[in-house]
Amino acid sequence: MSAVTSTRVVLAARPHGEPTTDNFRIETAQVPSPADGQLLLRTVYLSLDPYMRGRMSAAESYAEPVEVGDTMVGATVSQVVESRSPRIEPGAYVLAYSGWQSHALVDGNAVRVLDPDRAPLSTAVGVLGMPGFTAYSGLLKIGRPQPGETVVVAAASGPVGSAVGQIARIRGARAVGIAGGPDKCAFVRDELGFDAAIDHRAPDFAEQLKAAVPDGIDVYFENVGGAVTAAVLPLLNLYARIPVCGLVSQYNAASMPEGPDRLPGFMGLVLTKSLTIRGFIQSEFVQAMYADFERDATRWIGEGSLKYREDVVDGLENAPTAFLGMLHGKNFGKLVVRVGPERA
Ligand code: NDP
């Protein structure tokens, strides 16, 4: 056994509906020395992402759930403390999937080495990582925005939505963002350069959205579902495309919404507007598009046309509260936990 003790956040119990901090538990454990091919990692940044709510549930999904008592899963930027992999030196920074813990043993072939001089390390789980790629692939492959078209996206100050709107503008489209509250809307409009930003919490949200899209909506990048989608649907143009990326407003739902069945009306709209609705998980496009994404996103960041904001929370023990807050919009930008300093 090595002398390293790992602090980790485990799933204490599955939530029914809204999760609370009681669904998590902090534990410590001794980490064994790495075997042949393995790395001992020290976590620097832990990425917190909405999909983790799905992993807390046993409901059937595209990925296996976290078992009760197991460490919560998640992407990390980590530093190699000890290496028994011939291709990775101690001290190197890597993108790993080592979860909510301070130290971990991983297979050396399961990580990607990061160049700390190329970009800030935290961007490997943000604008230059999975969320940025989600925006790039879903928008360009499914949304296919054309010059002059109107693209609408919610969670517009977050890592996926902010990149969707900016890439839409790079492609010559008009970008309308939806975000929670005046500060986020001001950021989306004034800092990120969206053409308009609408607060989904405003009492006249649907009217404001209608006024912001005088030519209708050609691409609705679906991040949230619920009331936002209900306001978007009547504004869709003929042949509109809807990449269905996420439904974060519904992740804690424990029962069906009240009221009449809206499905027949929705299917009628799909028919009469000739809509294309296509769900996706970003991983399906990695092989075909990741190299293009890295090249384009790096260039756009350098040119200043792709901006990003990070919301950094200090301390692994604060991960549960930060994660629960994200599901209600308490984060402002890509949510990461600084688990340890960049330089040990
Ligand atoms: P964000 O960091 O943007 O966090 C989620 C945001 O959702 C909150 O900050 C909040 O922003 C917004 N939100 C929460 N509840 C509501 C609500 N009821 N109505 C409207 N907005 C709400 O998250 P990401 O950018 O990481 O992810 C965005 C979406 O993309 C999520 O649905 C996620 O699951 C999905 N995703 C899908 C992937 C795929 O492969 N398909 C991969 C990665 C992400 P605000 O305060 O502005 O309302």
Explain this structure.
- The protein has 344 residues and is an alpha/beta fold.
- It has 2 domains: 4-126 and 309-338, Quinone Oxidoreductase, Chain A, domain 1, CATH 3.90.180; 130-286 and 293-300, 3-Layer(aba) Sandwich (Rossmann fold).
- It is 27% helix and 25% strand.
- The chain contains 9 helices and 15 strands.
- Strands 3, 4, 5, 6, 7, 14 and 15 form a 7-stranded mixed beta sheet that branches. A 6-stranded parallel beta sheet has the order 10-9-8-11-12-13, sandwiched between helices. A two-stranded antiparallel sheet has the order 1-2.
- Helix 3 (159-170) links the parallel strand 8 (150-154) and strand 9 (174-179).
- Helix 2 (130-143) packs across helix 3.
- It is globular and about 65 Å long.
- The two termini are 21 Å apart.
- The relative contact order is 0.16.
- The mean pLDDT is 97.
- The chain binds NADPH dihydro-nicotinamide-adenine-dinucleotide phosphate (NDP).
- NADPH dihydro-nicotinamide-adenine-dinucleotide phosphate binds next to helix 2, helix 3 and helix 6.
